[in-house]
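FORM 7B: Structural annotation worksheet

SECTION A. Query
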Amino acid sequence: MQHHPGPAARGRHALVVDDNQDAAEGLAALLETFGYTTAVAYDGPAALRAAEEVRPAVALLDIGLPGMDGYELARRLRELPGMERLPLVAVTGYGQDADKQRSKAAGFDVHLVKPVNLKHIHAVVTRLIEPAESVSG
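SECTION B. Predicted structure
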């Protein structure tokens, strides 16, 4: 089946970070069907390296990562030159109000609780990227 990316997706990179390799690969595959080019990492240090390499338009991060958790990763991603406004989406099993408040404080734009609705992920990512597209292009 041929998928045609929408204008917001065409040529845009999405960074997917999850220590569950199946979850990360599945989410990346979904985003690719919508026209995104994806980079996948399974921990914080690998995610930082990937972000510097691909300069993603959006990052979808699990919170419960080994070593450097998603909160710390979010802060570090936003410290990278040129990524101060990188849209960040928490895709996590942590769904309590305190978790959502903590993710907001760490700089996440959106907090999604697993299992996530695939159409909802696409809508969220598109909404986060389109404003940047209209400003810069």
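SECTION C. Observations
Residues 13 and 56 are 5 Å apart (CA to CA). The chain has one domain: 13-136.

SECTION D. Sign-off
Analyst initials: ____
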